[in-house]
Amino acid sequence: xSSFKITKNPDEEEWELAHSLRSDAFPYDRMGYLDCLGTNWxxxxxxxxSLPFAIGRSKWGFKQAFCxxxxxxLGPLGTAADDPDRLRAALDALPRLVRLRLSxxxxxxxxxxxxxxxxKAGLERWSSAPNYELRxxxxxxxxxxxxxxxxxxxxxxxSGNQLWEYSNPEELWNYFVQNQGDKYTIPxxxxxxxxxxxxxxxxxxxxxxxxxxxxxxxxxAGIFVAFSGDRALLLFSATTPEGRESxxxxxxxxxxxxxxxxxxxxxxxxxxxxxxxxxxxxGFGAVNxxxxxxxxxxxxxxxx
Length: 304
Prior knowledge:
Elements: E1 5-7, H1 12-20, H2 31-35, E2 40-45, E3 50-57, E4 63-66, H3 84-92, E5 99-104, E6 114-118, E7 122-129, E8 132-135, H4 140-145, H5 149-157, E9 162-164, H6 169-180, H7 190-203, E10 207-213, E11 219-228, E12 231-239, H8 241-245, H9 248-260, E13 266-270, H10 275-282, E14 287-288, E15 291-298
């Protein structure tokens, strides 16, 4: 079994190879995307597994490893990405920083959620985080049959919308801030990081911005979808009050699904802790496929 090494500047060719060996690829794990998020990166690497993480200082000044905004989860990559024992070994081999707070795909057979407990001179815990996915296998007609009655009613009411396939990240962000910005705490640097990431994906042919327009070309709702392997991922969205009244987001996602069937295998809505949003995703037939959140505080005598 190969040992781990910590690298500050992972080799791009090695990184792309590790990414390609993962059966379920995410856009977050590509080096070009990570570089857009404005953080410093390190990786724990071996021949069969790679685990990326951002590194920086907390607001209290101590050094920590973390998963930044704009990347819901990071890794693991490589042939052992779905091996719970190898992931456990990788987590034990991470640098002895004050705090480590990572999110990653959950390997098959990983232990059940566990609260704070003592392990190897530190406190750690892990939990499942919700993530909603819709399988795009089969026909659109079959998928539509899996919609909830509420979703079908909302689609029936969503008349008069027009599809605009040439929106842009700037427009999408502005409508988000105007209409949802007061509901969320927007971290410093998040705006620039997300815009840069979206433009990067567009330039690479790995993303698209779609919008729903109403009467008089009024902007009602918009989505940014990222593409990675067999996965289409809803990375960012915004809607206006008029768009909510006219069920424009339901209509827009349905339009995307009609196009996506046969091109990708999974539509990933990403996760949410909001029950209303979870129900909205489930209304299209999406199911919860949780990922893993892991956190550790190292004892002072373990610090370098």
